[in-house]
TrEMBL record:
Belongs to the ABC transporter superfamily. SMART domains: AAA. This is ABC transporter ATP-binding protein. SUPFAM superfamilies: P-loop containing nucleoside triphosphate hydrolases. CDD domains: ABC_Carb_Monos_I, ABC_Carb_Monos_II.
């Protein structure tokens, strides 16, 4: 292992003029950057700036159209993830690819080539997890693990291949503040061993905290490089988006007092052995109010979203009331017709069909609620012009950046697709909005725009539920906050009287009345 003080030595990785073109769009336009040994290097940029495209070229998933990758002084061509790993480049993806019914060791074994003998995997995984402060039981079933623990499996299986460069894509978006602190300790240790890290994140506070250098991309080009520790969150955001990022202003609840979202003893059995059951959930949201539901992923958030949206119905009609009607037994289309909008967490395959154009995705979500506008004549034929007008309106309002006029959803960057899906709902005249993770993977400028739009919707008299793991977001936009843990929801409390520490406690499963922080929650 190399020592940490060789940051000034020859770069581990140097990119010269790396370019990737999709049709007429230069997703990466002559990108040059260097990563030194023992450096945590942030890759920043607004949605669609080209970050994922760049790292896909580094990990052998996409072939560059021009430019050069120089690894330890030698030009290389990386034509597969296998080739990347062989060189010493590892990647921890944002979305985990784990089999829930298998153990930690079995999952690790599946992803490795023959370099680690199968009989040694559990033992080596245990040693690595202990050495790097990533507690993990190789014999545990993945289904029983928290999201943070699942991420540790991904990190450990990357480390098993002894990489010199580790690419991390939005690693903290699924972690509690305490788990994120632990991850930062692991990253410090990796850095101290001379390993380098390429760190993609929209969370600028953590970039300031742990990164040595940052390269900023905009429209596929490098537009700046800096030492993030010398910057403020605002100056980093400005570099990314090319202008100031507006603060969201929430204001007092200006509604008329009507209850628009209500659940009464909402209980649902777990749908699969790995799902969470909902237990006696009582939730009340008034007109003009934003209620945030915080919690660590996998504690019943998607089950609650499904029950509120009507993707899963309940046996009691009054278990869910929306817009003043008992809707527990009604499906999603009937609920949409009552003026309710829903944005699920998963964009591909749930919020949008990846292989369909944006305009077709518009029809899929709004064919019933906008039947008068979208369908014409006695035969109910699709009015393409009207659909396109609505699609274009959303693209404009949310500043959706795309290549081509009406691309497939799969051709949008993650953040831009999220903007489109949010905009498709916000463009309707809603009285109720239920949204799960509204700004996951969305850049600072777009996140502020989405949050302001949610707040403005509430100001217009709608009731909003925002399910979010992002505590900054929760505090920025909510009037009240409740926490979900193991399928139970705490009573909502006014945001202005809650502390982060108390929320972290509730997220970790402490009883609502607890006012001391248990040791686990302190772990740093
Ligand atoms: N397969 C593809 N076909 C066509 N265009 C694509 C494809 N993949 C990406 N793009 C386009 O390339 C540009 C860069 O996308 P990329 O995913 O690299 O951005 P990003 O910086 O990672 O954004 P985000 O923060 O939203 O993930 C975007 O305009 C996107 O629409």
């Amino acid at each position: 292992m190399q020592a940490s003080d060789n940051r000034s030595s020859a770069p581990l990785l140097a990119l010269a003029g790396l370019t990737k073109i999709f049709g007429t769009l230069k997703a990466c336009d002559a990108i040059s950057l260097e990563i030194a040994p023992g450096e945590i290097h942030a890759l920043l940029g607004e949605n669609g700036a080209g970050k994922s495209t760049l790292v896909k070229m580094l990990f052998g998933v996409l072939a560059p159209d021009a430019g050069q990758i120089v690894w330890k002084g030698e030009p290389v061509s990386i034509n597969s993830p296998f080739a990347a790993r062989h060189l010493g480049i590892g990647m921890v993806f944002q979305h985990f690819s784990l089999f829930e019914a298998l153990t930690v060791a079995e999952n690790i074994a599946l992803s490795l080539d023959d370099s680690v003998p199968i009989g040694q995997i559990a033992e080596r995984a245990r040693a690595l997890s202990e050495g790097y402060g990533l507690p993990l039981d190789p014999d545990a079933l993945v289904a029983d693990l928290s999201v943070g623990e699942r991420q540790r499996i991904e990190i450990v299986r990357t480390l098993l291949q002894d990489p010199q460069l580790i690419i991390l894509d939005e690693p903290t978006s699924v972690l509690t503040p305490q788990e994120a602190d632990r991850l930062f300790e692991t990253l410090e240790k990796l850095r101290s061993e001379g390993r380098s890290i390429l760190y993609i994140s929209h969370r600028l506070e953590e970039v300031r905290r742990i990164c040595d250098r940052a390269t900023v991309l905009r429209h596929g080009k490098v537009v700046g490089a800096c030492d993030p520790r010398q910057e403020t969150v605002a100056s980093l955001a400005r570099m990314m988006v090319g202008g100031d990022v507006a603060d969201v202003t929430i204001g007092a609840n200006a509604g008329d007092g009507r209850v628009l979202i209500e659940t009464r003893r909402l209980s649902l059995p777990a749908r699969t052995p790995f799902a969470v059951s909902l237990k006696d959930i009582d939730l009340t949201v008034h007109s003009g109010e934003v209620v945030a539901i915080a919690g660590v992923a996998g504690n019943g958030q998607s089950e609650l979203f499904d029950a509120l949206s009507g993707e899963v119905t309940t046996s009691r009609a009054d278990a869910v009331r929306l817009s003043g009607q008992d809707v527990g037994r009604k499906g999603i289309t009937e609920r949409r017709l009552l003026g309710c909008g829903f944005v699920p967490e998963e964009r591909h395959g749930h919020g949008a069909v990846s292989q369909m154009k944006l305009s077709d995705n518009m029809v899929l979500a709004r064919h019933a609620s906008d039947a008068k506008t979208f369908l014409g004549g006695g035969l109910g034929l699709l009015k393409r012009d009207a659909v396109w007008a609505a699609t274009e309106r959303v693209i404009k309002a949310m500043d959706v950046r795309k290549s081509g006029v009406d691309p497939h959803a799969s051709a949008l960057s993650g953040g831009n697709l999220q903007k489109f899906i949010m905009g498709r709902e916000l463009d309707r005249n809603l009285s109720v909005l239920i949204v799960n993770q509204p700004t996951w993977g969305v850049d600072a400028g777009a996140a502020s725009r989405i949050r302001q739009a949610i707040v403005d919707l509430a100001k217009s008299g709608a009731a909003v539920v925002v399910i979010s793991q992002d505590l900054d977001e929760v505090f920025e936009i909510a009037h009240s906050i409740a926490v979900i843990h193991h399928g139970r929801l705490s009573a909502s409390e006014p945001a202005r009287t809650l502390t982060r520490e108390r929320i972290g406690l509730l997220m970790g499963g402490a009883a609502p009345e607890a006012d001391t922080v248990p040791e686990a929650a302190h772990a740093r």
